[in-house]
């Protein structure tokens, strides 16, 4: 009778009474068992890895889908808002923006200030009867337009009136977002400063200290320049043209600006989300890290050395609270300051570019008095 072999018994692995044939069969059986177990583990690991990868890919796909949806929503809104801006600029050019501009001023348009980017230009405004033997004071104007639009040629109601007072006015085109997102715009402003310094002798202008001003987005960039010129820590954050990095600014004229970018998004100002997101290169302000939120907001960089400032706000401007915050900051730091807050039906955002308004005439009188005292 043949002996029955228990292949599951451990003792058979070392049983001396086992034949070589029995040992081999037992070895083969155990080998198959171990291989099956390894395969099972391999399959389990493969399944787990696949499931993990599937979950990861799903999460990535969801994230990509969300990003794509947000980008698509941004692109649609941007196209709509940008189209509206183009229309408004054209209408403004033909009607209110350039109404009542001075006829005593000569204009030189499309002067390119960056040899590496022919899109960048400035317009020059100076009195026709200017005595070129006398050095002229300089006023640099930075137009508004939500960082996505606006042109020097559509702000001539304001710039020519300043030039009429004897200033050499340079109105800068600095690019539009998101193509020229932060910090490209302020870097372009400093390239324009550098061009003016290089041509100061040619135009006989005084670049030792200049005045800088603008409306809305232009007021934001003007305030940034004011902080850069007086706060070394802030200055060091930017890749500025070394010819103008330490340009001194004698005074600022800030018309309805944005000084705290994150707070601006909570004001309910029409399309403010698209404007600020465009300035940040398509990224929503809330998604920026805290350091970047501060970097794009000049209110955080004001010191006692900040340039003397003439600030303008309007009762019917939802961004007016930002001017009040900024004015309080200037007061607290001991900065020389004047603040004109307009009231009434037409006290809307950036109203002071429209020269036909009575409240603008009051604002301009205040600006000229401010400029004459320095």
How would you describe this structure to a colleague?
The protein has an 8-stranded mixed β-sheet, with helices on both faces. It has one domain: Alpha/Beta hydrolase fold, catalytic domain (Rossmann fold). With 374 residues, the chain is an alpha/beta fold.
Summarize the structure.
This protein is an alpha/beta fold. The protein has helices at residues 20-94, 156-164, 184-198, 200-203, 217-230, 232-235, 261-264, 272-279, 290-295, 320-333, 358-372, and strands at residues 105-112, 121-127, 136-142, 168-173, 205-215, 249-255, 309-314, 337-342.
Radius of gyration: 34 Å
The CATH C-level class name: Alpha Beta
User: What is the number of domains?
Assistant: 1
Structure annotation, total helices: 11
Helix percentage range: 40-55%
Order of helices and strands: HEEEHEHHEHHEHHHEHEH
Low-confidence stretches: 1-14
- How would the global form be characterised? elongated
How many beta-strand elements? 8
Keywords summarizing the entry:
374 residues; alpha/beta; Rossmann fold; disordered N terminus
SSE layout and pairing:
Layout: H1 20-94, E1 105-112, E2 121-127, E3 136-142, H2 156-164, E4 168-173, H3 184-198, H4 200-203, E5 205-215, H5 217-230, H6 232-235, E6 249-255, H7 261-264, H8 272-279, H9 290-295, E7 309-314, H10 320-333, E8 337-342, H11 358-372
Parallel strand pairs: 3-4, 3-5, 5-6, 6-7, 7-8
Antiparallel strand pairs: 1-2, 2-4
Helix pairs in contact: 1-8
């Amino acid at each position: 009778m043949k002996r029955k072999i228990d292949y599951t018994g451990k003792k058979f692995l070392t049983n001396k009474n086992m034949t070589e044939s029995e040992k081999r069969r037992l070895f083969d059986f155990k080998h198959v068992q171990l291989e099956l177990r390894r395969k099972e583990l391999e399959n389990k690991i493969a399944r787990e890895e696949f499931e993990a990868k599937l979950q990861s890919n799903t999460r990535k796909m969801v994230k990509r889908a969300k990003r794509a949806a947000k980008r698509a929503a941004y692109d649609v809104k941007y196209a709509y808002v940008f189209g509206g801006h183009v229309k408004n600029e054209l209408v403004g050019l033909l009607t209110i923006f350039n109404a009542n501009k001075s006829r005593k001023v000569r204009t030189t348009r499309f002067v390119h200030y960056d040899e590496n980017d022919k899109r960048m230009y400035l317009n020059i405004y100076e009195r026709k009867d200017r005595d070129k033997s006398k050095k002229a004071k300089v006023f640099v104007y930075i137009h508004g337009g939500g960082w996505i639009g606006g042109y020097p040629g559509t702000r001539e109601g304001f710039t020519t009136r300043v030039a009429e007072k004897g200033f050499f006015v340079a109105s800068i085109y600095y690019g539009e977002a998101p193509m020229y997102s932060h910090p490209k715009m302020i870097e372009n402003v400093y390239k324009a400063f550098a061009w003016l310094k290089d041509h100061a002798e040619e135009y006989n202008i005084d670049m030792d200290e200049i005045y800088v001003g603008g409306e809305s987005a232009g007021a934001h960039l003007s305030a940034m320049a004011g902080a850069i010129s007086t706060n070394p820590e802030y200055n060091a954050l930017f890749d500025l043209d070394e010819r103008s990095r330490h340009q001194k600014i004698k005074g600022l004229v800030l018309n309805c600006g944005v000084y705290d970018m994150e707070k601006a998004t909570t004001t309910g100002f029409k399309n403010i989300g698209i404007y600020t997101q465009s300035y940040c290169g398509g990224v929503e302000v809330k998604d920026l890290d805290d350091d970047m939120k501060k970097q794009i907001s000049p209110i955080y960089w004001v010191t006692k050395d900040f340039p003397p400032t003439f600030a303008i706000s309007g009762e019917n401007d939802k961004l007016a609270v930002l001017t009040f915050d900024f004015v309080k900051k200037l007061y607290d730091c001991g900065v020389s300051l004047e603040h004109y807050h307009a009231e009434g039906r037409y006290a809307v955002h950036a109203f002071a570019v429209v020269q036909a308004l009575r409240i603008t005439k009051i604002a301009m009188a205040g600006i000229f008095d401010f400029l004459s005292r320095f």
